[in-house]
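Entry for pyridoxal-5'-phosphate complex. Fields follow.
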Amino acid sequence: MRKIYFDHSATTPVDGEVAKLMLEYMTDKFGNPSSIHSFGRDVAKAVEKARAQVAGLIGANTNEIFFTDGGTEADNWAIKGIASANRKKGNHIITTTIEHHAILHTCEYLEKQGFDITYLPVDQYARVRVEDVKNAITDRTILISVMFANNEVGTLQPIKEIGQLAHQSNIYFHTDAVPAVGNYPIDVNEYNIDLLTLSGHKFHGPKGIGALYIRRCVRIDALHHGGAQERKMRAGTENVPGIVGVGKAAEIAQRDMEKKIAHVQALRDKLIKGIQEKISDIKLNGHPEMRLPGNINFCFSYVEGESLLLNLDIKGIAASTGSACASGSLDPSHVLLAMGLSHEVAQGSLRITLGRANTEEDINYCLKVLPEIVGRLRSMSPLSAFNKISESSPCNCYSYAK
Ligand SMILES: *Cc1c(COP(=O)(O)O)cnc(C)c1O
C-alpha cells in the first residue's frame, strides 16, 4: 500500500547527510568538546561550525546561538530566564492565546509566581492585532512573546511590527519560531527579534536538539548551573551528535529554502483547491495567504477529526488533527477555539503539513481518498441532516468561493 507522510509539523525525517554526520560524531569523533586534547578540540570546532550554520539560517551572530535540548526547553528558558532576570523592572508579560503549550504552560507557572500575563486574542484567521499588543503594554511589561507562525493553522504573525513596538517601548521580544525556521525565510534583525526558539526535528534535523537565539545585551538568567558549556548559560556536556546534526540541517535548509518553498507551496495550493472542488461544507482554517507554505487545515462539517485520521491512516495517509501534542487528549484545539470556532466544529479539523519529499502523486492520491472517506463518514453521521457549520458556529472563517 502507498504510504504518505503529511505530518511535517509534528516532525520530519532526518536528512541522510545529517544522519551520516551524526554517526561520525558518535563513533570516530566522540571526544568531549571541553577536553584540551585533540579529540576534544576537533569536536569543539565542529560544535562551533554548527553554531555558525544555525546562526546563518536566521541572520544571527554565531555567539548569539545557545543550544538546548529542543524547542520546549528553549521556550521555557526564554520566558523564565527573562522573567527572573528582569523582575525588578516589572512583572508583566504579553503573549497570545494560540501559543504552543511550551509557552502557555510556562506562563501559567509564572502566574503562580506572581507575574501578570496578558493572553492576547486573535482574529478569525488566527492573527494577532498589532493594536492589541500596543494597548496591552504597561510600564511593568518586560517581555512580549508571539509565535512566528502558528503550528496548527499556519498563520504568519505581524512579527516585524510587534518587534518594532517592543523596541520602541524598551521591552524584550521573543518569538517561538519552531514551525517556521528552516521552512520560511527569517532574519532576526529584519524582524526586530531579541530571542527566538527553534527546533531541529521540524526541519530534517534530529529530535532532542534546538536552540535559543539571544540577542547580545539581552538580560537573561542562565538555564542550568554547572560547567562552563554554552558560555555558562546552559551547563552540561553538549549533545554533540545533535548539535552537528542541527547545524547540517540548517545549512541544507538555507541552501534549499527557495526551491523547497516553491515546491511545497505549489502542492499545498493544488490540494486546497482540489479539496474545495470535491468536498462541500468545509472551511479552510487560518489565513488564506499569510500562512506557512506547507500548511493546510480544514474543518469538515458532520465529521470528527479522529475518525477522519483513522480512516486516512488505513489508506496509508498520515495527517493530524490540531497538533501532535494536543491530540491524544479529547479537548478540541485551543487554537481553533481562540479563532472563534465552536467546540463541535473544532473537533472536525484536519491538518495536513507538507514536506519536501511529497509529490504531485501524493496530492492526487489524497484527492481520491479523502472525498470518499468524508462522504462515507457523513452518510453515517446523525448530524448530517442538520446543523451546518455556517449556522451552528459563531466563527466566520474564510472559505473560498466555489
Ligand atoms: C514542535 C513545537 C515546539 C516544541 O519543540 P520540541 O523540540 O518538540 O520540544 C514548540 N513550539 C512550537 C510552535 C512547535 O511547533
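NOTE: Residues 323-328, 386-402 have pLDDT under 50 and may be disordered.
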